[in-house]
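Batch job 17 of 40 flagged for manual review because the log was empty.
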Amino acid sequence: MTEINEEEFKALIVDDNEDVCQVIEAHLCQNGFKSHLIDKAFRAQEALKLLKATKYFFIFLDVRLPDMDGTSLIEHIRKDDSKNKDATLMMSSGEDLDDMIKEYLEQKIERDKVDIFLLKPFKQSDCDNYFDIEYMIKQQQKKKAKG
């Protein structure tokens, strides 16, 4: 791996389930992130405050939040928040979504340029692949090359 400045690799986890946040944090730490550089928000409004103050390399969003849906938060990140526009954006939702909602989410996610979409519960292979810092660096380089 090339020499990196760890301060550039801050992560934000936005999920109203504290257990899910801990699982994601553990996977991120196993794959190159430093725990002291991982912030957590349990509501969209908390996330918005953190997003105003901090530039993140990686943002994990849950689809269902108590005060705003995750796709609305994506719109904010991609349109209104220039410092976090290039963050690797991952989104998740439960397997119990019906097909109509899944189709809607897939269209919205494609339009808003979500980099990775996973269904909960996460598979170990997904976590090993998609929570890896080197994988995310390569994905960001590809995004920037496409312009």
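Reviewer: the log was empty due to a logging misconfiguration, but the result itself is present. Helices lie at 18-30, 44-53, 70-80, 99-111, 124-130, 133-146. Unflagging and moving on to job 18.
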